[in-house]
Amino acid sequence: MDWREIASNPPAEPNDTDTDKLAAVSNSSNLATISALPTVPVEVDKRHYGLNESVHQYCAERAAQILKRDLNELRLITCNLDGGCSLAAIHNGQIIDTVTGFTPLEGLMIDYSSGSIDPSVLSEMMRQDNNTDDSSNREVVKESNLMSAAQVSDDPRSVASEVETDNSRAKQALDIYIHRLRSCLGSMLMILGGMDGLVFTAELSENSEIIRELICQSLKFLGLKLDLEQNQSDPIDSDIATTDSKVRVLVIHPQEN
Fold it and tell me: What is the topology classification, in CATH, of domain 3-252?
């Protein structure tokens, strides 16, 4: 159905047949059927705006090689953390969900954008400032990103290093960044119904052990156990989870065309 039909046509009035169907669904005997529905959508929207699909696909295939598993049997979340961050939920070798939107204002906090934000915030900021230009948009895109929030250098890795000092702005920026990452990872876990492997890739993922450690800390409830010694040894294309971890953790160097 075309979106214009959905937007312009009023909903049809329910008839007796529809009422009977609703009653049947609400019957407790049908709840088992509802809960047994597959968690993965039958039809997956393959339009991934703003996503570097080749990186996520490569990392999924490389993860299967490292784990010596069939990619079609794995549930993976790939974390591409660099200047423009993106996550992908991969089921049976196919990307079924991402956190990237049509513009950088959807998804994760990144080097040059604040990440997901209620669009009405922009209107409210313009109303309070009595501005009709793009100053409010500039505040969200240019002044609410990771670098500006931390008030450190233009290198995102410096934010993590500043946490060891008394730079409270850097700590706050890192807290916001990690919180958003955890939130998006949680939604993907629900989509996948579990996770066999967590993959870190790209510059920030590969060079910041503190980012990897903070993310893995929040996934202990899955039985994920990070090998702290391996995590601090600049791992590349390797599994850094402990041998008894129920979820594998991999750091993979991306191979971009």
Answer: Nucleotidyltransferase; domain 5 (3.30.420)
Domain-wise residue ranges, the chain:
3-252
For residue 184, name the pLDDT band (cuts at 50, 70, 90).
confident
Residue identified by tokens 């230009």 is: 133
Edge to edge, what strands does the sheet with 94-98 contain? 94-98, 86-91, 75-80, 197-201, 248-252, 238-239
> How many Cα atoms are found within 13 Å in the side-chain-facing hemisphere of 14?
8
- Taking only the tens place, the pLDDT of each residue in 48-103 is 655 778 889 999 999 999 999 999 999 999 998 876 778 899 998 999 988 876 66
**CA-to-CA dists, residue 134 to 126, 140, 183, 186, angstroms:** 9, 10, 29, 33
Within 8 A by CB and 6+ apart from 113, the residues are: 104, 105, 140, 141, 144, 145
In this structure, which amino acid lies at residue 236? I
Cβ-contact 152, 161 below 8 angstroms: no
Q: How far apart are CA 62 and CA 197, in angstroms?
A: 12
The two structure tokens encoding residue 104? 């950088």
Give the global pTM: 0.66
In angstroms, rounded to a whole number, what is the distance separating the alpha carbons of residues 94 and 78? 12
pLDDT tens track for 187-216? 899 999 999 999 999 888 788 899 999 999
70 three-state secondary structure: coil
